[in-house]
Amino acid sequence: MFLALRAEVESALERALSTLDFPTEDLGIEEPPEDVESVLASSVAFRLAGEAGAAPPQVAGRIADEIGADDLTYVSEVQTQGPYLNFLPSDAYLDETIATATDAGYGALEDREESVVVEHTSANPTGPVHVGRARNPIIGDAVANLLDYAGYDVDRHYYVNDAGRQMAVFTWAYETFDEEDLEEEPERDRVEYDLVRYYRKGNAFLENGPEAEVAEAEAEIESIMQGLEAGDDEAYERVSEVVDQVLGGMKECLARLPAEFDEFVKETRFMRNGDTDDLVGRLQDLDEAVYEEDAWQLELDEYGIDKNLVFLRADGTSLYPTRDLAHHEWKFDEYDRAVTVLGEDHKLQAKQLRTTLELLGNDTEPLRQVLYSYVNLPEGKMSTRRGTGVDLDDLLDEAIDRARTEVEDRLDDRIRDDDLDEEDIERIAHQVGIGAVRYDIVSKQPTKAITFEWDQALDFEAQSAPYVQYVHARCCGILEEGGVDPEGDLESLGLEAADADPLEVSEERDLLETIARFPAVVDEAADDLEPHQVATYTREFGDRFNAFYRECPVLADDVDPDVREARLALVAASKHTVANALSILGVDAPRSM
Q: Quick check: 101 and 138 in contact, CB under 8 A?
C-alpha cells in the first residue's frame, strides 16, 4: 500500500503546486524520521520559498491548505511541521495493508512484461567453488530473486568458460596423468574434488617439468585450443568430458546454497556457430584496432581506458573477452535487459566490454554490472590453483555444525511445546546455518570487502539471519496456537474484511506501517540492484515485530476478542512479509526453531 500512498501523494502535490503556479519538477518527497507520525513527508517548501517570496513554513501552509485530505483515500491528514508537509495514513491505508499482506504472494509486484537475464557465478570449471568467490552466487541469486519479485521475467545463467587455456591445460592433464601420478587424495567424495588434482598436477608439471616434455605438452595444449577455435568436434568433446564432470560437481555445491540456474551457456557455443569469427572481423574494421606485440588489440585510451583490449592472438585464437562480446550481443538479442554479477577484479574488463560493445554499435543501456568485493575468512586469502584455501563446501558444513550446536543449546529455553526430534534439529540446523552464511554475505553492500565472522553470523540475539528467522518461527507459533494455519490468508482467519481499527497501540501501528512499506522496498531495491536493502528492511522489521510481541499479547485471556482477531491478522501479515523478504535473500524461513 505504500506504493499506492506515494502515488497519491505525488499526484496531490502536483495538483496543488500547479494550482498555486509553482513548478512541479521536484516534489521533495521523502520518508520522515521515526519520531514523526506521518508515512511520507515533503520538503518542497524549501525549494519554493524564494519563488514564493515567503518563508518555507508559510509556503508549506499554503500547499497544505490547497491539498486538503478529504478527497484522498490513503491519506487522512496533511500536517505542517515547520517547512515540512507530513502525510498521515488513513484507516483505508491500514485496512488494505492487512488485506494484501495476509496474501501468500505479498510483496510481489505486477508483471512488467520485460525479460531480464541475470548472469552470475560463472566460476571457471577447474575445481571446487571456494569461499573467496562465494559472494557471487549468493548476490547473484538474490538479485535474480529480487527482480523476479519486482515483476520481471527472469532467467538465471551461468556462463561456462570451456575454451580458454586453463581448460586446454586441464584436458591435457586429465588425459596424460593417471591416479598413481597424483600426490594427494581427494578432499571430498565428489567429482570436482577428484579431477582438480589433475589440474594441479598439470600446472605443477608445466612449471617444473623437463624442458623437452613441457614443450611437447605445450604443443598439445595449443592443438586443443586451435581445435576449439576451428570448431573441431573431437577437440570440443575432449574438453567437454572434463568440463561437464567438474561442472556437475560444482552444481551440487551451489545447490546447497541453493543457487540454481536456468541455463549453462558455454562460450564454445559462440565459436562453433561462427559468432566469434564474425565479431573478430568487425573488431578489426574499427578505427581503434591495431596489431601490436603479435596480437590484434583495441586502443581505448581516448575512452578513459589505459589498457588495450586484446581480442585475437597471432596464432588466430580468440580470447575470453572476444567470446564474451559475442555472448553479450546474443543477450541483447534475446532479452530486454542483462545483468552481470562480477568480482571487483573484473572492473577493468567490465569497462572494456561496455566500451567495445558501444564501438560495435550496440546500445548498452540495458546492461547493468554489479561489482562486488571478495569474502575473506580470518585465515586469509585462498587459491584453487595452488590447492590451498577453504572451499564453499567447508564453510557450509561448518555453518551447519555450529548452527546445530546453537539449536541444541537452546532447546531448554524454548517456549513452544512442539517437541523437536533429531530430524527437526537437523532441518533447522541446515536452515539456520546456510541462512546465516547467505544473510551475512548478502546483507553487506557488495562493494565493501567483508570478513566472515561466525559469532556475528550465528548470533540469535543480534541482527543476523537467526534473529530474523526466529521472527518467522514466532509468527508461526502464535498462529498455530490461535488455531490458524500459518500458510493461510484472511479467509482462513475467519475475517470477511480486514479491519485495523482495533489496532491502536503504537507498536501495532508501527509494525503495520513497516509491513506496508515492503513492496516499495522491493521496487527500490530492484531498481538499484541492491538486495542488501531487503536485508536492512528485515532487520528493521524484526525490531518492530519484537516490540509488538513484547507490548501486545495476542492470545492472552484478557485480550478483547476484536483486538485478538486484529492482532492475529497482523501476525499473519507479518509472517508472510518476513517469509517473502527472506525468500528474496535466499534464506529459509523455519516454521519452528
A: no
Instruction: Tell me what pLDDT residue 503 has.
Output: 92
Going 54 to 58 to 61 to 65, the CA torsion angle's sign is negative
Question: By the 8 A CB rule, do 559 and 553 touch?
Answer: yes
Which amino acid is present at 207?
E
Coil, helix or strand at residue 568: helix
Integer Cα distance of 269 and 159 in angstroms: 11
Distances (CA, A) of 275 to 155, 281, 455: 22, 10, 50
Rounded to 5°, the CA angle 471-474-478 comes to: 140
Closest residue by Cα to residue 537 from 528, 549, 525, 551: 525
Say how far apart CA 287 and CA 292 lie, in whole Å.
14
- Beta strands at 295-298 and 289-292: parallel, antiparallel or unpaired: antiparallel
Locate cell 568485493: which residue?
373
* Neighbouring residues of 350: CB distance < 8 A, sequence distance ≥ 6: 340, 342, 369, 371
Compute the Cα dihedral for 405, 411, 414, 416 and give only its sign: positive
Q: How many residues appear in the chain?
A: 593
> Distance between alpha carbon 365 and the CA centroid of its chain, in Å?
21
CB 161 within 8 A of CB 366: no
* E strand spans, 39-196: 40-42, 75-81, 84-89, 115-119, 153-160
Cα 160 to Cα 62, 69, 100, 135, 389, distances in angstroms: 61, 57, 42, 18, 23
C-alpha cell belonging to residue 108:
510481489
Backbone angles phi, psi at 84, to 5 degrees: -100, 150
d(CA 289, CA 359): 11
Q: Given this model, what pLDDT does residue 439 score?
A: 95
- Indicate the pTM of the whole model: 0.92
Burial class of residue 426, CB neighbours in 10 A (0-12, 13-18, 19+): middle
Contacts (Cβ under 8 Å, ≥6 apart) of 165: 221, 225
From CA 48, how far away is CA 22, in angstroms rounded?
A: 7
Averaged pLDDT in 10-residue chunks for the chain of 593 residues: 93 95 92 88 93 93 92 94 94 92 93 98 92 89 98 98 95 97 92 96 96 97 95 96 97 95 97 96 97 96 96 94 97 98 93 98 97 75 49 91 89 73 92 94 88 79 88 94 81 67 92 96 97 96 96 95 92 96 97 89
DSSP assignment of 442-487: HTS-TTS-EE--HHHHT-SSSSSHHHHHHHHHHHHHHHHHTT--TT
Angle at 327 between CA 140 and CA 198, to 5 degrees: 75
- Report the C-alpha gap between 5 and 9 in whole angstroms: 6
Q: How buried is residue 271: exposed, middle or buried, by Cβ count under 10 Å (0-12/13-18/19+)?
A: buried
Residue matched to cell numbers 530473486:
145
**DSSP per position, 528-553:** HT-THHHHHHHHHHHHHHHHHHHH--
Evaluate whether 144 touches 584 at the Cβ level (below 8 Å). no
